[in-house]
Structures are given as structure tokens and as C-alpha cells.
Amino acid sequence: MKRGLLIFSVLAGAGLFAAVTNHWNGGRTVPVHRLAPRDFEDGKVSPSAALPAPFSQAKTCGQCHDVKAAHGGSHFRTGLDTNDAAVSVQVEPWFWADETLGLAIPLSLHGQQGAFAPRDLGMSAFEWTKMFGRSFPGGGIGSDPRAMEEEAGPRQRWFVTGPLEANCLACHQQDDAYDSSEWARQVLRENFTGAAVAASGLGAVEGMNERLDGSWAAAENPDDHLFKVPQKVIYDMTRFDGKQRCVFSVGKPRSERCLACHAVSEKGMPSHAIMGDVHLQRGMRCVDCHKNGMDHRIETTSCRDCHIAPKGAGPKPHHAGMPLVHFEKLSCTVCHAGVTKDGVRAQVRTARANRIGIYGRVQWATDCPYIIEPVFKRGPDGKIAPHRMMWPSYFAVVGANGTLSAIRPDEISELAAFKEIKGAAAAGKEMADRPLTKAVVASALAELHAAKPETVFAFVGHGKMWTADGSNLVASANAAAEPVSWPVGHDVRPARMARGANPVKCADCHAAESGFFQAKIMPAGPIADVEAEAVSQADLMGVCAAYHAVLGTAFGMRPMLKVFLWTVFGLVCLFACAAAAVVLNKMAGWISDNTDDFIWGLAKWIVDMGFVACLLYLAASGTIGWLAGGMSGVWLVLHMCAGGGFAACVLILLAIRLRERTSGTLPGLVWLFWTLFAAGVVFTAVMPMMTVYGGHGQEMLLWSHRCVSLCFFAMSCLVCWFCCRKR
């Protein structure tokens, strides 16, 4: 009995291990995920309980999947582990923004150039999770034990909230019940463990952990008993069966799930004007190119992998007339990517930075941080690519060697200098796009200096470091004020809307006043009355603006140059034909003068008869096939054979009859047209065999062949009449 139980346990354990490590068995269908949710203690969730526990996706999904394998994935980087997924390209940083004042500090967990690490601003892992949890699917720094073990304090509330673990449904839920806006609301309410319940539509979550203190003290004010209470999960009982199981509609991520965090749109563009990515328009999904395995480390298929590589699945571009140097120095996205109308530089708003795509009674989206696209600059691979660019704006402490230490926006916002701006915002008054003025910034710097006279303070914005000189601001260069940028990958536009497409073509970039090479980019920032120093587009690309100005001017003469060169080409061809005619005439004369009259006459007679026979058969079979609706079978084969003989005879006749047929002006003119129509017959016969024209083109060639053949037949009769008349 014990032995049997032991064997059964071993087999069951092996089966469970196989299910976890090899969750896919080769089936082509997605299994129905009908299972009982598990809570954070790995117990079975009882949805009908008075205070049911929120379900844990790590425990629930972990019944079949190896969720630990995903912890180092691309969406779950913590910056704490060398096992994090490598950053293959420069990505959009996070921004700690104060939209009322227009301040924005770029942040990164993995040391991105131009961005601060959270610890540089004293930002705890909890603060990071609460601030940015709206736009990432949990996990990572939101549930990593090392992050949650940071020293407790006013900026660390894990004891109240619990972890914000990886939300599998944020990406994998297939139905339309998933609400990313609800996820954002619950994260900001610090209902971390219940956020997935509310977002997935499995239930509702009441209360706000945000209003509790660190000891979970409940509401003392009876008027606040609906909000200043711990989160409470209320499951939708219609989603559960009698075994307390529910169906999770999951599968490969839909593009809508990706766009919840990765959408970008031009500021002010109406929704009906947004084209979207051409791949999504054709029915593809984001995950068709951005793929990953169970480790959730995304590998991206590049443009060249699909559209240039010989075995690529995408259509191969023609790029007719485009010099190869473009493919050596430019990325595909220069011409084919961007969200702004007609690719014109404009301010854009992203989901991660500007909170677009989150809906509710309160407007969530903001203009801050100020991001513009496209800005063309040279990337690490040496190729020019379009980028989105943002100039940081924040108050900072100036170190002895000129280094800047950013001051937290929440500490700056309490200054008296901003009292009027804050008061207007709190009253709901309409704010200006650029809320600050030089006087307000100078007043704020003076206030900071008054509090700490021994410290030098500065404001960073518009690409410069600004220090106060009385009531004025003095600008100076500082590396910390340089913009941060990241490449534009989407939205990919169709070829007809690409940069350099009709009608302007080359002049879109190569013109004397080209917006591509000669543009001056004005750094964006929150100060309304500041005079920022423009950045040269050519400098960002590492090219010479003067050279491209001269080249652009030269491009204006390209139409005239084309007409001139085609004219020269045509004249050269005429001279070549004339020379060839003289040579052939001399050769025909030499052959005629050095050949026995009888043999030469017999050869010409044979060629003439062969030509006449082929011509008559082609005329008869072609006419009958035309009137009868086409030809096929043996008649078509004979027509093709006669066509080959006809072509050979025409070539021989041109060689041996040229001199005698051009002895007079009028016969020579007739012979010229005979030759042209013969060339037309051959051309319209061979072109349908080439893989160039489609159905409409084939139809046009067929009618052209018929018309040219009739003209040739008539011209042949005229040539015969001249021959008989001469004799």
C-alpha cells in the first residue's frame, strides 16, 4: 500500500513538474482556463465569503505556468539584478512630472543616458510603484523582495498595500472586460493586491488604502467611512460556477493591451485623423514582431528581417530611383515611421509620460512633459533615425564642480513663489500651456537661497541651466540640461505616405531650405517668456548643413538636367542607328557583290518565300483566333512556331534587302516604317511572356499586338507593290 502510494506520488509530482516546465504540448488551440483562483497564501479563494481575499495571479497562473521564469523579463526590470533582460535599444524613460508647474525629471531603473536613478532623488521603490504602476503590468520593482525590504518610513508603505505583483491579465486577457483605467485608479489608491480584480472585471474593489496610516487605522470621521477604509474585494458571483471556478479569457496579447501603455499621439490631433500603424491595419498584432518565450524577454523582428532579407515574410520594397547611400546612412523609420501629420515636427503625448488613454470623470492626460517628434539624430549604429525628444525641467542644487542634484518636485511645489499658480490649479481655472515665467523662477530660486544661503540653486530647462541674478535669469550650458531622446519605431506609415513620396519626392529632404537638414529645433520647456537657444538638426545628425544647402540648391536643377540628358541620349541613339544603317548597307553590298548571282538569288527567294508563308499563316491564324475568341492547343503551338520563323526571316531580310530597298527616297521611307512595325510586332509578342504586366496590361498588349500586326501586314503589301513596280 505504502509502495503504491509512493509510486503514485512520484508520478503525480513528475506530471506536475512536466506541466509547469513544458506547459505547451504542441496543441494548436488555447486551452480553456477554467480554474479556481488562488490567494496570496496559495489558498483557494472563496468568492462568497464576507471578506474574500483578492486572488494572486502568481499563485493562480503558477498552477500550470512557470511564472518565476518571467521575473527577469523585459517588462519586469528592477535595476537590482544582473539577470534583468538586457536593454537592446534606448527606450522611453519614465518622468516624475508636476503638471501644474511643468516640471519633469527623466528617470530610469537601468542607467539610461540623461536620466536619473530613483535613488538620486530619494525615491523609494514604493513611490516608484505608486507613481508609475499605472503604465506597467506590476511585478518587477513592485513586488521584488529586495525592493520591499527597504528601510521603512513615510515613503514606504508596503505593510499597508502589499506587493503589486505581475498582472498577467494586463497583457493576456482577450475580452473587452479588462479596464486599464481601473487598474490605474486602484494603483493610485494603493489597493495593490486588489487592482487586478477590479481591472479584469472579476469583481469590484472598494476603499482606499491610500487614506490609511501605517498602522491601518480606520476612519475616525464617520463621513469618510466609504473611502478611509482598507480595500474590500467584492467578487462578481456570476463569473463563478458551483466549484468556485471562473473562466479566464487569456491568450496572446492583443494590440489594444500593448497600446494601453505604449500609445503615442500628436497633441490636438482629432481621433478620426489618426491612421495607426500600417501593420495593425493589415490585421497583424504587436506580438507578431515583438516576440518572447516564457522568460518574457522580448526579441524584436526588425524591418530588414521582413522586408529586405530574402526569406522575409513581408513584401519587398522597390525603392525605385533611390540611391543606395540612403540605406547605408538612414534607418527605415526616417521615411516610414511617426505619428504626426505628414511627418511634420510637433508636440506629442505618450501613455507613459502624459497619461493618455486613462479615462474617468477627471482628465488624466497632461501636456507635461513636453515631448516633440520627429527629431533626426544619429543613433549608436551610426545611422540617422527619428527620435522623440524631451528637455528636462527641474530645480537643482549646484555642486562644487558644476554637477547638478535634482530636487524632488513635491518639495519644490510648496514654495511661496508658486502659490498663485497652485491656487489657480486647485480652483480649476484654465492654465496656460507654459505655466512659469522668468520672474516666478527667479523668485523661487531666491526663496531656496534664502532658506539655505550656503547652497547654490539653479533651474534646468529649455536646454540650459538658469541661475538667478536678482530678478533676472542667467543661462549657461550644463550637460545635465541636455535633452533625452529615444528612437521612434511606430506608427509605421504605408509607402504612399512615406517621407519623400509623391508629389515632392527628393525635394522633401533635398531642398535649399530643407526642413530635414536645415531645421532649427527650439527646446521645449515650462517657461513661457524664455528665449531658448535653437538646436541645429544638422548637428544632431552629424552632417554639414552648408554642404546640404548647396546640394539642395543643386537638386532644384535636376528636372532640367534630366531633360537635357534624355535629349542627349536620344540624339546619340539616332546617330548610332544611322551609323549602323551605313555599316549594314555596306555589308549587304559586299555580300551581294561577292556572291554568285544564281546562289544569291536562290537564297533571297527562299527567305522571301519563308517570310511570306509565315506571314500568311500568322495573319490567318491570328485573325481566326481574334474573331473566334482566342486560340489554343495545336493552333497556338503552330502560331508560336510561325512567329519564331517570322522573326528570323525579318532579321535576315533586314540584312540582305536593306540596300536594294533603300535605293530611293519613297521606298526607303516605306522600308523604315516596315522595320518599325516589324519591331512592334516582335515587342508586343514577347512582352506578355515577361512577368511585368498584370491582367490589364496583358489585355493592352494583346490589342497592341493586333493593331501593330495589321499595320505591318499592310506595309508588307506596300513593299511588295514597290518591288513589282520596279520590275
Give your account of this protein's structure.
The protein is α+β, with helices and mostly antiparallel strands. Among the domains are: 386-558, no CATH class; 568-726, no CATH class. The strands form 7 sheets. Strands 7-10-11-12-18 form a 5-stranded antiparallel β-sheet. Strands 14-13-15-16-17 form a 5-stranded antiparallel β-sheet. Strands 1-6 form a two-stranded antiparallel sheet. The N and C termini lie far apart (121 Å). The model is unreliable at 1-22 (pLDDT under 50).
Count of DSSP strands: 20
Strand order across the biggest sheet?
Answer: 7-10-11-12-18
Q: Which strand-content bin applies to the residues? A: 5-15%
Structural class of the helix and strand makeup? Answer: alpha+beta
Question: Could you name the ranges where pLDDT drops below 50 across 5 or more consecutive residues?
Answer: 1-22
Largest sheet: 5 strands, antiparallel
* Helix amount: 25-40%
Number of helices: 25
Shape: elongated
Mean pLDDT: 83
Gyration radius from CA atoms, angstroms:
39 Å
How far apart are the first and last residues' alpha carbons, in Å? 121 Å
Short description:
With 727 residues, this protein is α+β, with helices and mostly antiparallel strands. It is built from 25 helices and 20 strands.
Keywords:
727 residues; alpha+beta; 25 helices
What is the topology?
Blueprint: H1 2-21, E1 33-35, H2 57-61, E2 94-98, E3 103-107, H3 125-132, H4 145-148, H5 158-161, H6 169-172, H7 180-188, H8 195-200, E4 203-206, E5 232-235, E6 246-248, H9 255-262, E7 264-266, H10 278-281, E8 290-291, E9 299-300, H11 303-307, H12 325-329, H13 333-336, E10 346-350, H14 351-354, E11 371-378, E12 384-390, E13 394-398, E14 404-406, H15 409-412, H16 419-426, H17 438-451, E15 456-461, E16 464-469, E17 472-476, E18 484-487, E19 520-521, E20 535-536, H18 537-541, H19 545-555, H20 558-593, H21 597-628, H22 633-656, H23 658-661, H24 665-686, H25 695-726
